[in-house]
# Entry
Amino acid sequence: MSVTKICMVGAGRVGKLQAGNFQRYIPGGEVTALVDTSEPMLKDTGEQFGIEARFTSMEVALDKGDFDAVVITTPTPTHKPLSIMSAEKGKHVFLEKPMAMNLEECDQIMAACERNSVHLQLGFMRHFDPDFVLAYERIQAGEIGEPMLVKSLTHGPGLPPPWARDLRTSNGNLAEVNSHDLDATRWMVGSNPKRIYLEVANFKGDERGVDADHYYDNMIANLKFESGALGSISGVCPCDYGYDARMEIIGKKGIMIVGELKGHALTVGVDRETGLVTPIFQRWPQRFFLAYIHELQHFMESIRNDTIPKVTGIDGRWAVAGVLAGTKSFLEERPVLLSEVM
Amino acid sequence: MSVTKICMVGAGRVGKLQAGNFQRYIPGGEVTALVDTSEPMLKDTGEQFGIEARFTSMEVALDKGDFDAVVITTPTPTHKPLSIMSAEKGKHVFLEKPMAMNLEECDQIMAACERNSVHLQLGFMRHFDPDFVLAYERIQAGEIGEPMLVKSLTHGPGLPPPWARDLRTSNGNLAEVNSHDLDATRWMVGSNPKRIYLEVANFKGDERGVDADHYYDNMIANLKFESGALGSISGVCPCDYGYDARMEIIGKKGIMIVGELKGHALTVGVDRETGLVTPIFQRWPQRFFLAYIHELQHFMESIRNDTIPKVTGIDGRWAVAGVLAGTKSFLEERPVLLSEVM
Amino acid sequence: MSVTKICMVGAGRVGKLQAGNFQRYIPGGEVTALVDTSEPMLKDTGEQFGIEARFTSMEVALDKGDFDAVVITTPTPTHKPLSIMSAEKGKHVFLEKPMAMNLEECDQIMAACERNSVHLQLGFMRHFDPDFVLAYERIQAGEIGEPMLVKSLTHGPGLPPPWARDLRTSNGNLAEVNSHDLDATRWMVGSNPKRIYLEVANFKGDERGVDADHYYDNMIANLKFESGALGSISGVCPCDYGYDARMEIIGKKGIMIVGELKGHALTVGVDRETGLVTPIFQRWPQRFFLAYIHELQHFMESIRNDTIPKVTGIDGRWAVAGVLAGTKSFLEERPVLLSEVM
Amino acid sequence: MSVTKICMVGAGRVGKLQAGNFQRYIPGGEVTALVDTSEPMLKDTGEQFGIEARFTSMEVALDKGDFDAVVITTPTPTHKPLSIMSAEKGKHVFLEKPMAMNLEECDQIMAACERNSVHLQLGFMRHFDPDFVLAYERIQAGEIGEPMLVKSLTHGPGLPPPWARDLRTSNGNLAEVNSHDLDATRWMVGSNPKRIYLEVANFKGDERGVDADHYYDNMIANLKFESGALGSISGVCPCDYGYDARMEIIGKKGIMIVGELKGHALTVGVDRETGLVTPIFQRWPQRFFLAYIHELQHFMESIRNDTIPKVTGIDGRWAVAGVLAGTKSFLEERPVLLSEVM
# Structure
């Protein structure tokens, strides 16, 4: 099998996870270059995964590195320049969510990829999770009938990094955490969101030293889809108790519940007062372990076979639109139509 | 043990359920009179449970019947007259939810009960469900910390009766089905709702011959509580797949999940393609079997010991307020403060 | 409804549980007399449940008490004299398991009840547990086909009382704890046991000061039924972790799993390292809460309607036979046919 | 990373599964040769996975093929010659369970591997299943205390092939299906089995045309370990309902339950009468998907780093000993000490 050469852009948490996945689980791809602006992280991650070619600049990497595709795992504001630059050099682009800061950036990224005939895949890995995939297929087959109501949640354990808490450098938790839900509800319902209403709350900001304007750590979004279906998304981050990503879809015929809190088929009872104990998914890499592997294998296959990835810039753009409308909603304390921001 | 004599008001579904519970499970109470405007139902239910004294009019029942308390299970618009009439005759009142059509009625009911020194208990039976009670106690004990976000759902299998589908004779599903959630979220969070936003949809009305104005069979409510906590309530009725009532509460320390869809600890696998099958709660009497018994036992004890019931008119009134604000929200397509209707 | 008057024989754990159930949940029965050889327990239990007529002797109770039936909850060696004495005075007999010490006693008890035309019901409450009942009905309906293999377990939390640990005054855990499994597997499979092989182990005896000969706290029984079906029963007592009673039946068409460890539909997560926590059934009264109520209601109905109880001396006798063969098996280290002891 | 070249011996079900795993998930190994006595299967599997070098004889493969290690997935009677032949040529050996037909063969295989300094890993993949591994680690850490009792089951959906049903060409289901349990209970308990008693039954043989002597499709084994712990293993094959592999371990402090029947975190309810439906593991490759990948990655690492695999011939030999004693037990209808066959 031909092996696709990859430049991993970003040597942080996601970069490490995906470099490790290429090394351990993906015969079809090999990380041959690593980019990060931080020298120590570059060294640390590079050594851990035996990546010799390390660069502190994307420009230099594109100039001197030997690779066919980039996997971009850096903070949101960098997505546009890094992906456009890579596309212009003919590299296929795998881009982490959220796609970009706004719709203009999304459009520019898509245009650059199209112009240069490179594939663009978005990092919505739920499309590659065995449970979500099975749910999707069974909904498509009509098992629960036309979707009427969908509920999705992503609750993450830890405090996001400073750039992700500030509405000037990211679009907050709705973007960084709940983009997945905006995408996944649209995917499952099979309809675009039409209206969103968002309530937010800040319960832990003070005690954790967050003073960013409009910071929130809890949110509930109310959605109306073009099909008439209703939706609800909850976001709690930091939730401390683990990583939690579940969905319920009610169709005209019935209900489907996707995912569960527990992280292992293991139950322990050693104390009658406490009761039974079961491991929880502690972090996202555990919950979506296989999905992270399969999304990259899919990207490799899309390149190898020259087929369009299942998750593209269009999906990324819709999620960004939902983020923008949702943010406007809580700031203006009213329901906002997506058409207002698109 | 002294036995409290009960007049069951309403010989329909709830009346039958509770008459049966008195007969089979509640030594402390005995149904000695039955009231219903429908002669056939009166006869049918009366014979089934051996209740000799049957009346088509509350006035006559109060005049001629021998009882200490009434259990009112009739449609919402009758709640005010029936309960006030009973209170005026010194009868203790157990009143099914929703308490009444509006806040004025609630106030009049409460005033009548107070004036006549009779107890008033509302039929929010979740306060007597073993799982909900345990959840409440553990939240009170601080196990998950201060509640930040609560999600509650009630999905019922069958089409509500005509009077319950029409905003002129009831307040629709938000009142008839989701009153329980408005009450239970307030109970668990320990704070009054402050603002509500409601999205509704009508997916099955046409095919089931419902042409009432503003009819909806799906709803998602977004709540903000006085404490700052957020909430979400979903209602689907008819949902067809069973009776579904669950809750999730996320506090500053962690998560609590209350209830489950399955109706028995029984799993069957006879076909690899289908997989495993587990009975579901088919109707509300199954899901809240013990709660329906325990709420009446509590009412009996409140009368016997002259103590204030755990669920009173105040709880009923808050749920009605939430219903009124929620209805206004979807009609006006904007978030509504409860203070606008109170 | 006519009320059956009950003499509760035994004021200990089971006596208290069942006296409480009559008082709170069973309108059809009233405990009007209490018997126990221990004055303090008699007083304690009598006062707790308002039972005025208290006796330290069954003879005196039968002579002076006013009751229609007895509920015998005393240690196994007392079962024969107490039940025969009661039957001779025309009292219906509800008898806790194990029925007796040996088959001769069983036969004498049954003969006495028959001779005096009184009903005899055995305390195998699993026949009244909603999950076990549903399993039985579905197996009878052919859902999983002919039973091929059944596994049943009862693990109890606490050290049994001294008389129950000694093979001279009881038949050990196989009788006191796992009688239920011997009965329930026979009931579900619909066939009598034919051969049994038992392995036992003593892990905690020393550290808990048990020096009875042949004491064991762990056992695994291997069963062959007359139908050709296989079975397995495990017993662990004290198991410390809670009360555990579950069953799995594999039929020619499929599998059925009955019961679960967890004691509430409540899940809590407050610590990522620990994971999720769910209450366990801590003791048998929690696990079989409804079954204990329903078995007594059934006894009341059998008396009221003069119908034969669903669980009789025949079931009790088969369980005793299984106990005797199983005990012989581990003592002689070989499989034992039930025909050897019957 | 250096890539280890593999000769896949056996082009059937397991051969295909593992060739596919190398291709899709294991960068460290590459199947460069394929051996099978059946030309059509050789062609079929070879083409499916792009393996050019195909051989109908192990001798020729060893002579002409280019590989470092063999993965032997052929029927049990072939294990000894194929593995010894490979070891003699210096190839590392991965050998599917059961290791061999008897202990002499086991000893010869181990001696050949040792003599030629090649690694020998047995295909007990449960040692690489995330849930089993976690259970093992937590037991080792003392969480449930010293194991007192272990229950393990493997129920498989389909009728085994003819050679596996005949005691002359295999050791029956105890070997082919329940070897895993014999191994896994020994692993978890941390003690060797000392005595075994086996009951068997034949429920489906006639209707499926099996007339082999001593054929059984249901079995229950009773175990006593050297440590004093007790054990139970159930085997049902064909069970039809799915693939089922679970374990429960009770230690002095508590219980641990490993594995579950359900194959996805997906629950569907579309019919109140049926209730909830959840996918089951349909076949073993689904249940142990990751374990099959991880056992081969471990084998690759053992070769690359020259370390002893976690599962060796010693484990394989103990399972064979358990099989021989268990078979003797049901044939002679008595408990058999493992020392009688070792």
Q: What stands out?
A: The interface with chain C takes residues 157, 240-242, 261-263, 267, 269-280, 282 of chain A (CB under 8 Å).
